[in-house]
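Continuing the batch. This is chain 6 of the set; chains 1 through 5 are on the previous pages. Same settings as before, nothing changed between runs. Recording input and output for traceability.
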Amino acid sequence: MTEIERKFLVATFPDGELHAVPLRQGYLTTPTDSIELRLRQQGTEYFMTLKSEGGLSRQEYEIQIDVTQFEMLWPATEGRRVEKTRYSGKLPDGQLFELDVFAGHLSPLMLVEVEFLSEDAAQTFIPPPWFGEEVTEDKRYKNKALALSIP
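Output for chain 6:
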């Protein structure tokens, strides 16, 4: 499946109704690997995700796993983890967004992502005022890079 998304720093936390879920993820791949293989706990659900390299558009494959599988693999992510709270909501035009507020040494970093059905839709998207600088192509803001950053 192709994931098409733009990512921005957050200038100010948005008003409105948001749904929050705690999230932790860890990477099984190393910094030199050309793909990302990650584990994610999102609330009470567990996933393994494979992502290709890329910026605006890249391949993503995700499968749900059970807690036993997650806990068996989680130790292999030591030193390559992030914890955050993910807020999801809708922009005034109905477009969905996901806002991540990072914990630990990455605090007070906040990033917001918007996914699109096409690259054309992504290119014509006009971000609202509470979005900050766009970092879609900045590899420093990929979750894998953030998981490897040292406090």
